[in-house]
């Protein structure tokens, strides 16, 4: 896979949309652009692209997976996830998803994905990082494989930081992780006080822009903050972003509630 180039500033990695490197996946009409991935563990953060009538192939999620639909939509046997919705696949979710129109998704994977073996599959990476061929059954056939959530329908809650609202999308309840996935809205001129990330923190900018320790993340770009990094966030003209936080943060010069929903 072609390596994506990112800016690194002392534990903060920023990947702008122009830096993403698109590669074809193992089925026709599928493309992947990774901001961060580890194919050994199945961890992934990046974009997925579907041509009209392209399908993922039958697969099963071993760990939690997220897809925020930026355009188009994906349909499986239980329904369709459309633009503005977050699709959540819990461990064991088993499906084949098809796009009827050109579709673009921001995706995060917490672990590997199993693919039903197919003859004649192209010699290219699977759509999902860490994809591996295996035969499997559906462990919970009565459960819908994708939980679709319209993010803007979630009531925003104020945070203790002025100008920042949070929509908690998923609290990982019932999984092996104690993480948080949320959407943050920053009004223009917002400054978030410095804090230290106790665990990795991953961001995707849906709209607007924000500085992470001075490095600008604009719409369509990603930010990854390493564990132990002190970071300051600021938005001059407003920001709307997705965040995945793997532990509560620690404010460096004051007390306050967790920004990401712990």
Description:
This protein is mainly beta. It folds into 2 domains: 20-150, Sandwich (Jelly Rolls), CATH 2.60.120.10; 152-251, Jelly Rolls, CATH 2.60.120. Helices cover 0% and strands 48% of the residues. The protein has strands at 7-9, 12-15, 23-24, 30-38, 43-50, 59-61, 65-71, 73-76, 79-82, 85-89, 94-95, 103-109, 113-115, 132-133, 147-150, 157-158, 164-170, 180-186, 190-196, 201-212, 215-218, 222-225, 230-235, 239-245, 250-251. Strands 1, 2, 16, 17, 18, 19, 20, 21, 22, 23, 24 and 25 form a 12-stranded antiparallel sheet that branches. It has a 7-stranded antiparallel sheet with strand order 3-4-5-12-7-10-15, with no helix packed on it. A 4-stranded mixed sheet has the order 11-6-13-14, with no helix packed on it. It is globular, with a radius of gyration of 18 Å.
């Amino acid at each position: 896979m072609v390596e994506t180039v990112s800016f690194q500033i002392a534990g903060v990695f920023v990947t702008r949309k122009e830096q993403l490197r698109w590669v074809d996946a193992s089925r026709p009409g599928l493309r992947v652009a990774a901001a961060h991935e580890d194919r050994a563990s199945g961890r992934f953060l990046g974009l997925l692209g579907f041509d009209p009538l392209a399908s993922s192939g039958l697969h099963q999620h071993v760990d939690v997976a997220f897809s925020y639909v930026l355009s188009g939509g994906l349909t499986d046997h239980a329904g369709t996830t459309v633009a503005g919705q977050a699709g959540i696949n819990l461990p064991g979710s088993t499906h084949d998803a098809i796009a009827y129109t050109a579709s673009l998704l921001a995706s995060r994977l917490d672990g590997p994905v199993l693919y039903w073996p197919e003859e004649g599959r192209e010699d290219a990476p699977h759509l999902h990082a860490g994809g591996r061929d295996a035969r499997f059954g559906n462990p919970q056939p009565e459960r819908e494989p994708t939980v679709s959530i319209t993010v803007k329908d979630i009531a925003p809650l104020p945070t203790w930081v002025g100008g920042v609202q949070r929509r908690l999308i998923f609290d990982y309840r019932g999984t092996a992780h104690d993480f948080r996935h949320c959407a943050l809205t920053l009004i223009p001129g917002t400054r978030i006080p410095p804090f230290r990330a106790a665990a990795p923190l991953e961001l995707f900018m849906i709209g607007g822009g924000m500085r992470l320790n001075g490095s600008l993340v604009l719409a369509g770009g990603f930010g990854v903050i390493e564990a132990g990094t002190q970071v300051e966030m600021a938005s001059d003209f407003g920001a709307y972003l997705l965040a995945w936080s793997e532990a509560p943060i620690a404010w460096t010069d004051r007390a306050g509630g967790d920004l990401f929903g712990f």
